[in-house]
User: Fold this.
Amino acid sequence: MPGTGADAIVIDLEDATPPHAKADGRANLVELAPELIDQVSVYVRVNDDTTEWHEDDLDSVPGGLRGIVVPKIESVSALDALQGRLTARGLSDLVVIGGIETALGVADARDLLAHPVLDAAYFGAEDFIADMGGVRTPDNAEVQYARSQVALVGRLAEKLVIDQIVADFRDGERCGRECREARALGYGGKLCIHPSQVAIAHAAFTPSPQEVERARRMLAAYAEATAAGVASIAFEGQMVDEPVAVQARRILALADE
Assistant:
């Protein structure tokens, strides 16, 4: 909610709203959204298009929202249909974040993220493992391939990808570890389910002052070397060439953001 420091909040009409309360969830969206949109970017997560609630969810989207989150996307044809439904309702200017959280979604992620209706995506580990019939573990070994695949596809599509939740919001150490893993993989952010996780995510995804200072010194030394016609240098015990310089430039760009 506002005051937590979150970059955005998502009002959830899907899993957090039980089947018997879907109408109440939509009513809460209409009531709460106007109070929030002046304070923070607000999204709504609708039910997926295989459910009886999807169309009503879209009909209930109030003005002023930043975007919608569409879970369990699995086919290009479904995204084509979603694009048509949004256009018909005058919602085509909303940011659309798709959930890659099934076996089919992961397998076809490259085609899905290339679709123009999607602006970003998230990896949903809990639903993915439920679909796979697997077992969720703290070390994430069972989602290592799928999680990496979504990050890779996000890079190819040049779209933001957001990392999985940590369901045990009391485990700050795990949240921090997962955030650092996600940043290392190329994710641009983390889904948080509790206010206590927001600061942890910001700390992990924001370069530290030490990282920024080292990147500046490294790039200065590298620029001096390349100006003299040298393609790689040794900097504080590390070999630095163009790929390493690209990473340093990214650190400075993140710090500026």
Q: What stands out?
A: The beta strands are 8-12, 41-45, 67-70, 95-100, 120-123, 160-163, 189-190, 233-235, 238-240. The first strand starts at residue 8 and ends at 12. The chain has two domains: 8-205, 209-256. The mean pLDDT is 95.
